[in-house]
Every structure is written in structure tokens, then in C-alpha cells.
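In this supplementary section we document a worked example of the pipeline. Step one takes a protein sequence of length 209 as its only input; no multiple sequence alignment statistics are reported here. Step two produces a three-dimensional model, which step three serialises into C-alpha cells for compact storage. The input and output of this example are shown verbatim.
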Amino acid sequence: MGKSRPKLDIDVGCGAADARVNSPAAVSACSTWKDDVAIGRNLDLIRNAQQVDKPGDRVWTDFQQRIARLAEHPNIPGMKETSNDLERLGQFAALAPDRFRVFIGWAPVVYPALVSGATGAILAVANVLPDACVTLYNHVRSGRHSDALALQQRLTHVAQLVTSVHGVAGLKAAMEQVGHYGGPVRAPLLAAGDKARHDVEQALRAFAG
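The serialised model returned by step three reads:
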């Protein structure tokens, strides 16, 4: 008798700047196990997701409906929203707040995102300043909004430097400056230059000051 396959719960993800690139990647990753993975029969929802416009546009309405259908799946407990569009995040968070969790992935808007319904955050800057990120979360959950806002304002500049300004190289440089292992960037990316390292160092000093 053949051995039965064990039942496994696996979290997977794909990431790209454009949904038209990311969607085929997700479909390809899932296709081999499409009868067993969480997406299952909803692969068509991901396959057809295209570039999304602002709330109120027809394309956005269609995309929101697709997310709403995915949120109904018992094996999909939530999503990460990496944008500064708080209206969009709030609409996602309202789909099924009792079971479908939305995490913000854009550090400069963590405080307003948590107020707008985000359950938590998945942030690049948390690799550099983890205690600050946890403290910000706790401030919001405890109703200390003035403290949360003040910490958000201090955290934003560092967060921008290690993402939108200097990218992965800036993040790795920042991790090394706080005593962690950043390691080399993968080709074709270039290592952080002198200016990037100086910017990050100055921002970290200002944050600590």
C-alpha cells in the first residue's frame, strides 16, 4: 500500500511591481498542487487580476470583488496591503473583519493604517528597528494615539531610506549598522554606495537621539 500524503498547511506568496507580472507567477507556483492549496478553484481570480486603479473606478471595483471572493475561502486568513492608499486598505479590512486580516506593508502609514482597520504590519524597517515597530503597534492598540503619532513621525524617514529611497541595499546597510547581518545584495542590484550608507547612518543617529 502506498503511503498517504500528509496534510500540510503552507503559506506562500509572490511579489512583483505589477499584477500582470505577479499573477502568472502565482498561478505557476500553484498549478502543480492546485487541487490541494488554499487558492484551489479560485486560481482564476488571481489569473485575471490586472493593474488596479483607484477606488471608484471600474477596474478597482472588479478587483475588490475578486478579493472579497478570495476572503471567503476558509484557508485564506488574510492579506498584506503594501501601499499608502488607506481608503483601499480600509475597504479590504471591512470585507470580513472577524476572520480576514489585513496587514499593512508600508511603514510610513502604519499608524493611520492600524486606526483604519489593519490587524498588524509586515515592514522592512522592522528588520532594523524592531522594538520601535512593536512599540508603535502597542501604542495604537492601547489608545496612546499622541505617542503613536510621534513615533510614526520619527520612524518614517528611516523607513523610507530602507525601501523607496535606497531599496534593498539601503536596508542591508542599515541592518549592518545596528549590528545585524545584512549580507550582499543579489545581482543585478548594486551594494549601497557611500551616500546611501551616510544617509542611513545619519537617520539612525537622529532616530536614536
